[in-house]
Amino acid sequence: MFTLEQLAAAHAKVKTGKDFPRYVQDIKRLGLAYYDFFVTDGHAEYVADSGEMIASPAIYARKTIATTPEADALRHIISIHQQGQTDFETFCQQAADAGVHYWRTDAVNLACIYVDMAGQDMVNEPIPDVLGYESL
User: Fold this and answer.
1) 125 by DSSP, 3-state: which?
2) Side by side, which strands form the sheet with 44-48?
3) What is the tens place of the pLDDT at every residue in 9-67?
4) Could you tell me whether strands 100-106 and 111-116 are parallel, antiparallel, or unpaired per DSSP bridges?
5) CB-based contact 74:127 (threshold 8 Å)
6) pTM
7) Burial classification of residue 8, based on how many CB atoms lie within 10 Å of its CB (0-12 exposed, 13-18 middle, 19 or more buried)
8) Which has the least CB within 10 A, 14, 53, 118, 136?
């Protein structure tokens, strides 16, 4: 079973959106099936292939999540963030404003799924499979 420290070390290597697919492969190799990142306060719940779960603490002050999900706005927010036009805190605020409750990074199915307060998928974005990659 992985530790929060191992996950943090893998995440610390991510410098741009281009690094994200390799990061997902790295955490998958640690035994992670998926994690849910909660936009409200920045805590995450990490679930192992075995079903075991560990949670990280909140990383910022509580944000209010918009009650009306805006998937088109979210697609734009994701796009500009991947291009490096926003930092992570700005991305999280914009996601909250678009109605994102949490996103799931699925290391098994290579997808990032953004979910609203009603539990409905807003955007399901594939994560590129990085074959023959070198760990970050």
Assistant:
1) strand
2) 53-55, 44-48, 32-38, 100-106, 111-116, 121-126
3) 998 888 767 788 889 999 999 999 999 999 999 999 999 999 999 999 999 999 999 99
4) antiparallel
5) no
6) 0.90
7) exposed
8) 118
